[in-house]
Sequence to fold (365 residues):
Amino acid sequence: MTRNLVSASRTRRSDIEGIEEAKPVRWVPVVLVSAIAVAMAGGLVGGVLLGQNSIPPVLAGSEAVSQVKVESRDFSDSRQVAVEAVTATVASPVSPLSGRITRLNCDPTQPWASGTSPMAVDGAPVLALHTDVPFWRDFAPGVRGDDVIALQTELAALERPVPVTGVYDRATRNAISDLLKSVGVGARSTLQLGQLIWIPDRTIPFSACALKLGDYVAAGQPLLTTVERPIAFSTTGTLSDLAVGDRQLRVGDVSVPVDANGRVVDAEAVAALAGTPEYLAIANSEDQKLAGVLELVAPMRVWVVPPSSLVDPAGDSPCVFGPNSEAIPVDIVASSLGRTFVVPRSSEPLTSVIARPSEGARCSS
Fold:
């Protein structure tokens, strides 16, 4: 038994000694791996140091260089603006004949318009008509003059075109006849003054009638009071950094051209704005202002880039850097919500740009 204990003791000691002898063998792979790691790290550092010489200057010194894709879009440069009507007081239309008023439009939201019948006298409808030359005589077959030219021109504006001959001929008589019948006025070979109310514009806003239904009216008596009509519209306020291009003003569903000062002065454009529901709703108010949108007539194609991608953005020749680190001159159109809209000066579209060029990057001269 003693021998067995001694043998067992020797066996355990031998096992322990074997373990202690194996320890140096287990450290050998660790030392080798450490040596390899050090060698690799040295090679990596050397590779980085050697590779720096091949980095384009535009990327040098950037901690995190990345390229971003560039998308294009249509840009109208739409600006919300206040629009103010410039009005002028005009003479009131007058009654062409005497009699009892049996029908009268006195609703300020329904302006008197050329080609309509706003009143009737002694049961006979009267036609309101705009011409550049006021009516001063009857139009009998064969009469000539500037007033006939004005009448023929207005017929064309009312989509009843006739040759502008300056002669009250058959074609003109037929067109007038159709127009009179459309508003309930009896047609005759001679167009009489008593059938017409001359109005100074195609649309006449008003605040009230001078007479009321059932009143007796005398020929030449004014029919409306405080008659004002817009002669221009102007955008108010100062707008900066507008994109270059012809602009238009949009109010509701109507768009009209504006001049370089943001004014609407063309007669047809003014009339179009004056006929919008938006303007008619404020036509009789003291503060004749309405909301509109000032925008480019033809939207331009722009490319959206991050502001950080621009080099020399305040200079005369800003640029971005493309995927091959080449400088691409651009024109800055606008900026909005962390985005900058640019147009390349070359015909080549932008596909991607370097998000953040180095501080030393310079645009090509």
